[in-house]
Design a protein that fits this description.
It is a single chain. By secondary structure, this protein is mainly alpha-helical. The strands form 2 sheets. A 3-stranded antiparallel sheet has the order 1-2-3, covered by helices on one side. A two-stranded antiparallel sheet has the order 4-5. The longest helix is centred in the middle third of the chain and has 25 residues. Keywords: Glycosidase, Hydrolase, Secreted, Signal.
């Protein structure tokens, strides 16, 4: 979400996934989780010198990034099956839905519905726009309920609705994260690492949370970014250190395997361009992508 509000779960706050909530309560029982999101959009940063020529702008690399995020948030590489997902996971943000965990309480779900209305006027979700605006900043379902959740799931069959989700993801999360990574001189792996941090933590800090901007600031205090003459692997390790520290401050994120047995592994293997094959583990589950 782009609007700043004071409660900790709002602007730039950590988005708790179902997987994270279950992991903190019960020793990683088998369950499906939702993609995280509902965080703030980041800076519209120009690409910096030393940036990779393609990186995650390559559709094949972007798809890999989406699979990597989904492995941590959905225990599956099939991120495209999440367009229809919608559920209240009792995290104080109302409904969580779609490919990046858009939330009724934080504004990005409303923006998805508004994008869809522009592309497909009169669609079944359009009538819920006033209710979505009214519940922002709360976890209420007022004016939504089952009619809304059923309409959301049904809309996933429409390419225009899927495109609306893609566009909001790119505008508020993927685009800002990749732009900042390029400005810092990072290749595809670094761009993914920034994106994953944006998805889970948001761009800025809210009460009781640590967001992307603070992580980057802490990393730059320890190592120079490639755009400033530093070694890429050393800087990424410093950023991941900052992220792990942030995750350990959140009870639901004490499992740091999405960093330590996935992203950190790629750094140590020198896969700075997200070169395949990629093999990693999250929450003890093994995954692999053999080729782009």
């Amino acid at each position: 979400m782009s609007e700043d509000r004071s409660p900790a779960w709002q602007a730039g706050a950590v988005k708790l996934s179902t997987r994270s909530l279950i992991a903190s309560a019960a020793a990683l029982v088998m369950a499906a989780a939702v993609l995280s999101g509902c965080s703030g959009a980041g800076p519209d940063t120009a690409y910096g010198k030393g940036a990779a020529a393609t990186g995650l702008e390559d559709p094949a690399k972007k798809d890999i990034a989406m699979q990597l995020v989904s492995s941590a948030e959905n225990s599956s590489l099939d991120w495209k099956s999440q367009y229809k997902y919608i559920e209240d996971i009792d995290d104080g943000r109302g409904y969580t839905a779609g490919i990046i965990g858009f939330c009724s309480g934080t504004g990005d779900m409303r923006r998805v519905v508004e994008r869809y209305a522009k592309a497909r006027p009169g669609n079944p979700l359009e009538r819920f726009r006033p209710a979505l605006r009214a519940v922002e900043g709360t976890d209420a379902h007022t004016g939504l309920g089952r009619p809304f959740t059923e309409a959301w799931a049904d809309a996933a069959g429409d390419a225009a609705f899927r495109s609306a989700q893609d566009a909001e993801r790119d505008a508020s999360y993927f685009g800002p994260a990749v732009a900042q990574a390029k400005a810092d001189g990072l290749g595809a792996l670094g761009q993914f690492i920034y994106y994953d941090a944006y998805v889970m933590h948001g761009s800025g800090d809210a009460d009781g949370t640590v967001g992307f901007r603070s992580m980057r600031r802490h990393a730059l205090a320890k190592a120079r970014a490639p755009s400033r003459g530093g070694a890429e692997a050393a800087y990424l390790d410093a950023f991941l250190d900052a992220r792990v520290a942030a995750m350990r401050k959140e009870p639901s994120h004490t499992d740091t395997s999405r960093v330590e047995t996935a992203q950190r592994v790629f750094v140590r293997e020198g896969r700075l361009g997200l070169e395949t094959p990629l093999r990693w583990k999250v929450y003890g589950d093994s995954y692999r992508i053999e080729s782009t």
